[in-house]
Specification:
It is a single chain. The chain is built from twelve helices and five strands. With 279 residues, it is α/β, with parallel strands linked by helices. A hairpin with a 2-residue loop joins strand 1 and strand 2. It is elongated and about 95 Å long.
Length: 279
């Protein structure tokens, strides 16, 4: 068959065909470099780009290789980096310019002497039966008491609004109002949302936020999440209803039955009442 016809069928140029034919029997000049790059690429679970590979070549193998050559070889042999999933919080936050942060008024002052004056709040995730649930809590920094919580199967704004609503209707708390109580959070999408900010403002609460990427600024609530995940077999739950009941029982135990050394060996609720009695 005519070469011109073959090239048309293969959708290649005649010059390209003859170049390929000329180089067909030649050894691949990139073969050795490819094997070295491939070794590093796969050792990094296919997540290393040319910058990381260039640094590893130099530091671990004492090989100096131009970044353009590394990129060319990676493209030539289809060593494509797995793209990291975008952070859903960042993606949601970029959808609106109305989100606002505020200063860190708590400033890690976790040694509070009066209960019902400073609260911390946050959200964590819980894996169960191949699914995800999200737990929002509000914790009293002084007594350690969980004063409100809400479990959800999604991350809509309802998770924090419902948590605040439970706080407002928590009749077990000796509070006439929530006015002047500080509520501290991170800079997550929910807490910078105008809906949440307005809710806090309407209650005359004082809003405080951690510095960006500083989880230690919200350590009290992170501590609770750690205890919960260590002490509760939530992964064994089969349904959301079962998980919700498990969390409810644990928080009741945490508040009323879990004695803590740093709370004068009392439970959070007992310690709260003790402090209020001597105040």
């Amino acid at each position: 068959m005519d070469i011109k016809v073959l090239c048309e069928i293969g959708q290649v140029s005649r010059s390209g065909y003859y170049k390929w034919l000329k180089d067909f029997d030649k050894p691949d000049k990139d073969a050795d470099d490819y094997l070295i790059i491939k070794e590093i690429f796969e050792s990094g679970k296919k997540k290393l780009g040319w910058r990381s590979i260039q640094m590893k070549l130099f530091n671990e193998k004492k090989i100096v290789m131009n970044h353009k050559k590394i990129s060319r070889i990676m493209n030539k042999y289809h060593l494509f980096v797995k793209i990291r999933r975008r952070n859903p919080y960042k993606a949601m936050a970029k959808k609106t310019q109305e989100h606002r942060t505020c200063e860190n008024k708590l400033n890690r002052e976790f040694k509070q002497t009066l209960p019902l004056k400073v609260f911390c709040t946050d959200i964590t995730y819980l894996f169960y039966n191949g699914r995800l649930a999200y737990l929002s809590v509000i914790k009293d920094v002084c007594s350690g008491e969980i004063v409100a919580w809400w479990l959800s199967d999604n991350l809509s704004m309802d998770i924090v609004i419902n948590t605040i609503d439970r706080l407002k209707h928590n009749n077990s708390l000796p509070l006439k109002s929530l006015a002047d109580i500080m509520i501290h959070s991170d800079q997550g999408f929910h807490y910078t949302n105008p809906m949440y900010i307005e809710e806090i403002k309407n209650l005359n609460m004082i809003q405080s936020m951690s510095r960006k990427a500083n989880c230690i600024d919200n350590a009290p609530v992170e501590s609770f999440f750690g205890h919960l995940k260590d002490e509760v077999d939530y992964k064994e739950c089969k349904t959301f209803t079962e998980l919700n009941l498990l969390i409810e029982n644990y928080i009741d135990y945490y508040n009323n039955g879990r004695y803590q050394w740093d709370l004068k060996k009392m439970t959070p609720v007992a310690y709260r009442n003790h402090l209020l009695a001597i105040a």
